[in-house]
Write a structure and sequence with these properties.
The protein is built from ten helices and no strands. With about 210 residues, it is mainly alpha-helical. The protein has one domain: Tetracycline Repressor, domain 2 (Orthogonal Bundle), CATH 1.10.357. Helix 1 crosses helix 4, helix 4 packs parallel to helix 7 and helix 5 packs antiparallel against helix 7.
């Protein structure tokens, strides 16, 4: 990828994450990035094209990061914990309107999100569950493919914070609760003990 385009996409993603999508104009993007509209339009056709390119770039980055975690020769629970930490940091900086804006105004981009979820995310979760079953930390009386789809669809609800608007909790806090709910629903006693060990190690030292 062109280095300048990568820089534009990375910085544009940050702008959309902070302010949402619908409310941000191309003028706003140029102002935030410190570039002219002429420069921006050398790389994208319009706002919809920018959003599609930003989304594709973000998905590639996320898939690479998750694949690196999965390929790092650690246990299933450690994988989940590291991915949880990565996603928590991401949603902590996510504007609450992003999911709504994509669904309503940019269906092509939203379809790409759904494709990513239904293929890559579901596949990773199912693989993680099967790995955990072999390690004895996840129950063997559950159907990995079913649980993977339930979990991935639940995360979409978590990030779309309208359901939790009255709880005065951040999206990151709600996401962590959802992950804990998932793990404790499928973990064995061995898995729960190991999870406690991992969480204790990750706590900041006083």
């Amino acid at each position: 990828m062109n280095e300048k385009l990568e820089q534009i996409l990375r910085q544009s993603a940050s702008v959309f994450m902070r302010y949402g999508i619908k409310s941000v104009t191309m003028d706003d993007v140029c102002r935030e990035l410190g570039i002219s509209k002429k420069t921006l339009y050398q790389f994208v056709e319009d706002k919809a094209d920018l959003i599609n390119k930003v989304l594709d770039f973000d998905i590639r980055e996320e898939e690479h990061a998750i694949s690196s975690i999965v390929g790092s020769n650690i246990t299933a629970l450690e994988e989940l914990h590291r991915i949880q930490s990565m996603v928590t940091q991401k949603v902590r900086n996510m504007h609450s309107s992003i999911i709504y804006d994509l669904r309503k105004y940019y269906p092509e981009a939203w379809n790409r999100v759904m494709q990513h979820r239904n293929d890559f995310v579901v596949g990773c979760i199912e693989q993680n569950i099967r790995k955990g079953q072999k390690e004895g930390v996840f129950r063997t009386d559950i159907h990995p493919a079913v649980i993977a789809r339930i979990y991935s669809s639940r995360i979409e609800v978590v990030i779309d914070s309208s359901l939790f608007a009255d709880l005065n909790l951040s999206t990151a806090e709600i996401y962590v609760e959802a992950v804990h709910y998932h793990i404790r629903g499928i973990a064995t006693e061995k898995g729960l003990r190991f999870l406690e060990t991992i969480e204790n190690k990750s706590q900041p030292k006083p």
